[in-house]
């Protein structure tokens, strides 16, 4: 069995990690910390976990508790991960960080986009980007993995096949994406209160959302990214617009190019039908479609996913499976919860 620890298990991504680990046949959760909920039964905070973890109590973080484990997930804020990761790397088999602390390879970008100086250039260079569909070979045997942002997962998987193949131009790409409220985390905030979110739909992070440089790093394209908050619990729908590079494609040729790029990927669903966030609920799948508009000359690619599953914890478990040489789909769902 793979011995797993979770730092920050009391947050939404931590709770999702616990859910996925419970259904993983080769994983055993040994330690789960949540400093703000230390001493609390996981099943009290999250009754959905009661069947699998009736006696699990959240602990306070101590690096010694994790020593020697096979995998440790970090579900904590960026600067907390920056402090904790050096205490664990090379003392455990693999550290998988769900924050952005080790995502951007250019450390000089952190003050601008995240508001802090990156103090660990060596670890930053060692970190492997945790998106198996694009970085599978690099993930094998990785000791430090930086999992992608939720918006980044959707936009990058939608755009990369067309950018890398030269079908669309790598400049002037627009990504218009909406996320469920869970993307803001469990902490109490005015912007995520029911009375604030219900019956509302709003854009935020105009021109300066921190996922912008990450999308550009993965796709190799220049991107104008605008996120929106939708009145739903989970899900991301990203609509991406790009100009053709050279001869105009067709809708059929776009779908064929994306389907060919992902032909061996277990969690990529490419089809003509319009993606729906609810179709991905609880799964590790990304649903994608594409169109070419002859009237305006634009290529349009849409991607839907569950922001807490594939966009965070599910993607992290998938990366763990690849890193450890385990069957990649173990512990992960391909069929959504519906209705």
UniProtKB/TrEMBL annotation:
One biological process term in Gene Ontology: L-arginine biosynthetic process
Sorted UniProt keywords: Amino-acid biosynthesis, Arginine biosynthesis, NADP, Oxidoreductase
InterPro entries: AGPR, AGPR_AS, AGPR_dimerisation_dom, AGPR_type-1, NAD(P)-bd_dom_sf, Semialdehyde_DH_NAD-bd
Semialdehyde dehydrogenase NAD-binding domain residues: 3-142
SUPFAM superfamilies referenced in this protein's UniProt entry, alphabetically: Glyceraldehyde-3-phosphate dehydrogenase-like, C-terminal domain (SSF55347), NAD(P)-binding Rossmann-fold domains (SSF51735)
Molecular function GO terms recorded: N-acetyl-gamma-glutamyl-phosphate reductase activity; NAD binding; NADP+ binding
Statement: the UniProt record of this protein carries the keyword Oxidoreductase: yes
Metabolic or biological pathway, per its Swiss-Prot or TrEMBL entry: Amino-acid biosynthesis
UniProt keyword NADP, yes or no: yes
NCBIfam families from the UniProt entry: argC
Protein name: Unannotated protein
Organism: freshwater metagenome
